[in-house]
Amino acid sequence: MEAHQQSVETDSDWVARSLRSVWHPCTQMQHHAQGTDHVPLIAVSHGRGPWLYDHHGDRYLDAISSWWVNLFGHANQRINGALKEQLDMLEHAMLAGFTHEPVIRLSERLSALTQHQLGHAFYASDGASAVEIALKMSFHAWRNMGRTDKQEFVCLKGSYHGETIGALAVTDVALFKDAYGPLLRASRIVMSPDARQAVDGESAEDVARRAAADVQKLFEENGASIAAIIIEPLVQCATGMAMHDPLYLKLVRELCDRHDVHLILDEIAVGCGRTGTFFACEQAGIWPDFLCLSKGISGGYLPLSIVLSREEIYQAFYSADVTRGFLHSHSYTGNPLACRAALATLDIFEEDQVLETNRIRAEKLTRALQPLVNHERISHARQRGMIWAFDAIDAGPGFSRRFFTEATRQELLLRPIGNTIYLMPPYILNDEEIDGLAARTLSVFETTIAGA
Question: Which domain range does residue 145 map to?
Answer without folding.
Answer: 80-351
